[in-house]
């Protein structure tokens, strides 16, 4: 980054377990979240919140303009997938689904977004992941085709 460059970029990233299977277990999710935090920090970015449910995760980062978001997400998925396999956390084949959502926020919205991420399990007692994700896409006026969304497990 060049001298005199100042930025304020906050991105919430959402991605799911392949097939939307509920494979992230409560007894090891905290270790997974810490591992993801380490990846983000090692890439020189700042993690503000990370949480999820058994089938998907959310995290909020403060991102430097020199960071390539798609490279960061690819590294998080690849490394955390290997981490889960090496630790033997899942008795089933664990993989992240292709694709992700990335949504930007102003500094004034950060407290709200952090609380939202911290309350994922409670939030999903009322709203499915599909409902949540499509509401993000609509709120941010992102054109999408159902064919290109995550593979959903219909409730």
Brief write-up:
By secondary structure, this protein is α+β, with helices and mostly antiparallel strands.
Would you kindly provide a written description of the structure presented here, covering whatever features stand out?
- It is a single chain.
- This protein is of the alpha+beta class and 155 residues long.
- It is built from 5 helices and 4 strands, in the order E-H-E-E-H-E-H-H-H.
- It has helices at residues 26-42, 69-87, 110-118, 120-123, 129-139; strands at residues 9-16, 46-53, 56-63, 101-105.
- Strands 2-3-1-4 form a 4-stranded antiparallel β-sheet, sandwiched between helices.
- A hairpin with a 2-residue loop joins strand 2 and strand 3 (56-63).
- It is globular and about 50 Å long.
- The termini are far apart.
- The model has no long low-confidence stretch (mean pLDDT 91).
| Poorly predicted runs | none
Radius of gyration: 15 Å
Main β-sheet description = 4 strands, antiparallel
- Give, in spatial order, the strands making up the sheet with the most strands: 2-3-1-4
Number of helices: 5
Count of strand segments: 4
Average pLDDT works out at 91
Shape descriptor reads globular
Kindly state the percentage of residues in helix.
25-40%
Fraction in beta strands: 15-25%
What is the N-to-C order of secondary-structure elements (H for helix, E for strand)?
EHEEHEHHH
Distance between the termini: 46 Å
User: Which structural class is indicated by helix and strand composition?
Assistant: alpha+beta
């Amino acid at each position: 980054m060049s001298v005199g460059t100042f930025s304020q970029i906050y991105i919430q990233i959402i991605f799911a377990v392949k097939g939307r299977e509920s494979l992230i277990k409560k007894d090891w999710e905290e270790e997974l979240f810490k591992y993801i935090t380490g990846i983000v920090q090692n890439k020189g970015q700042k993690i503000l919140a990370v949480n999820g449910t058994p089938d998907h995760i959310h995290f909020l980062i403060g991102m430097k303009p020199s960071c390539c978001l798609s490279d960061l997400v690819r590294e998080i998925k690849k490394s955390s997938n290997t981490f889960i396999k090496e630790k033997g956390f899942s008795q089933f084949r664990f993989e992240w689904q292709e694709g992700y959502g990335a949504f930007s926020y102003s500094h004034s919205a950060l407290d709200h977004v952090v609380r939202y991420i911290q309350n994922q399990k409670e939030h999903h007692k009322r709203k499915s992941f599909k409902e949540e994700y499509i509401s993000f896409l609509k709120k941010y006026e992102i054109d999408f085709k159902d064919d290109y969304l995550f593979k959903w497990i219909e409730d």
